[in-house]
Design a protein that fits this description.
five-stranded antiparallel β-sheet, single chain, Heat Shock Protein 90, Beta-Lactamase, alpha+beta, 45% helix, elongated
């Protein structure tokens, strides 16, 4: 095994909990980490055909990406279902073949399913919860209790014909609260609503919603009340809150891990860059120069991927904080105009900027990154025109827009455009220029600023992205 392959295996195995498998260009397994055995379900996998361990669906899905990888030598990442588990799969091209990385994200899907199920249960509980009715005269002498009151309290009318069942089964610690609310009702004559606990006939403590109002008539004045058992609803709420907390904790942990792994991988990438610089100083023939150029492009692609992964993960777990203050937006656009004007000349793109004097209250670093990502996107997919501009919406907000005349984004894909690694199926010719993280970073940064991002797109006419930003600091 080559030293390069050994170093690659050590870097990836040490820095990640993922499954790593290295295959040659014919699809035979050259190397793997310890978790690959369980993943593939076999103890003998060395020099076996990689495709033998997967069904036709998985194999055909992976093969769809090979052509693009061979053409542009950039990593490709996608989500795939393998043996009833969900994996985040990344394929990294190298001169000897490919490195596959599989990250089990089933737990995230299960948490989402669990949360949805809890939400349905809460909604169902609210619909079917029985509501009991009871009333009594203002002197507290005559009482009436509906059948549902007895059901809620776990008893029946035959056992509790006499007396006030509400007072009998009320939790001792809530009696004073109940009396205080009834007195308040009689004095103010305004309806009340409160939570009261009861101890059912079987000893179970339940929490109920009590609503009461006073009714006046010529015959008598009485207090009318409804009682609804919310115990199941409240238990479900607690479970939902705990599930959400665990899901957020897992998400933060994963984002933190990606940041740390990406940071640690920068060192070997920097070392590779140094070696490449050294090689470029040597005399090489045309073939060697071409190979070196391909390696250089692959390293730059991997570095770009790591930078974006680190940024998006930091935004997810709170590693990057925005710091807003008043700054000159026109000055920022002039800076970008000067830079992208040169790029437009090289690519023969008509580039214009419409701006006016304006200051906004935001984070200039975040705003610049948002505009850069949207401009880069426009320059990739336009035919020959890009416009960056400003519009004053009102006295409180300014809109930044980026317009191109590219092939546009299908309406069916627009809701997914801010998802990680998403790339339009109609833009396969441009996939070598990106990995689908630019727009997710825009979305997260705008969210961190409290700004809104939207898009309008028509087939073969282009796309217009807009970002609305505050002019002044909003009052707390």
């Amino acid at each position: 095994m080559s030293l390069r392959l050994l170093n690659l295996k050590k870097i990836m195995s040490d820095l990640s909990a993922n499954i790593f498998i290295v295959v040659d260009k014919e699809g035979n397994i050259l190397d793997y980490n310890a978790k690959a055995h369980d993943f593939l379900g076999s103890s003998k996998i060395f020099q076996q055909s990689f495709c033998e361990f997967f069904d036709d669906y998985v194999v055909s899905t992976m093969k769809q990406y090979f052509q693009d990888i061979q053409n542009n030598q950039l990593p490709h990442c996608f989500v795939i279902d393998i043996r009833e588990k969900l994996y985040d799969c990344c394929i990294y091209p190298y001169s000897f073949g490919y490195v596959f990385s599989f990250d089990d994200i089933t737990e995230f899907r299960d948490f989402a399913s669990y949360t949805n199920e809890l939400t349905k249960r809460i909604q169902h509980a609210g619909k079917i919860s029985a509501i009991g009715y009871f009333e009594f005269d203002v002197n507290g002498k005559r009482h009436f209790f509906s059948k549902e009151i007895y059901k809620i309290l776990g008893t029946d009318k035959s056992k509790d014909m006499l007396g006030n069942v509400i007072e009998k089964y009320m939790h001792p610690k809530d009696v004073a609260k109940y009396e205080r609310n009834i007195n308040k009702l009689l004095k103010s004559e305004k309806k009340i609503e409160t939570n009261i606990r009861f101890v059912r006939n079987d000893g179970k403590v339940i929490s109920c919603l009590l609503k009461a109002n006073v009714v006046f008539s010529e015959v008598e004045n009485k207090v009318v009340c409804t009682l609804q058992d919310l115990t199941n609803y409240m238990d479900s709420q607690k479970m939902l809150k705990e599930a959400k907390r665990k899901a957020e904790e897992i998400s933060r942990a994963k984002s933190y891990f990606i940041v740390q792994a990406s940071h640690d991988l920068r060192q070997p990438i920097q070392a590779i860059r140094m070696f490449l610089h050294r090689f470029k100083q040597e005399k090489m023939d045309k073939k060697q120069t071409e190979i070196l150029s391909n390696i250089d492009s692959s390293v730059e692609g991997l570095s770009y991927l790591l930078d974006n992964l680190m940024d998006i993960s930091k935004l997810d777990y709170g590693g990057i904080k925005s710091h807003s203050y008043q700054f000159d937006l026109k000055q920022l656009l002039q800076k970008l105009q000067k830079e992208y004007k040169e790029i437009a000349k090289v690519k023969e793109i008509e580039f214009s900027v419409k701006m006016f004097n304006a200051k906004i209250y935001s984070d200039p670093f975040f705003v610049e990154r948002i505009i850069r990502n949207l401009l880069s996107n426009a320059f990739k997919f336009t035919k020959n025109f890009v416009e960056l501009g400003m519009e004053k919406i009102d006295e409180k907000k300014i809109r930044i827009y980026i317009q191109d005349n590219g092939m546009g984004i299908k309406k069916s894909e627009q809701e997914y455009i801010f998802n990680e690694f998403f790339q339009s199926k109609g833009l396969k010719g441009h996939q070598k220029e990106g990995i689908g993280l630019g727009l997710p970073i825009v979305h997260r940064m705008a969210k961190a600023l409290g700004a809104s991002v939207s898009l309008e797109s028509k087939a073969n006419k282009g796309t217009r992205f807009t970002v609305d930003l505050p002019i002044k600091e909003e009052a707390a």
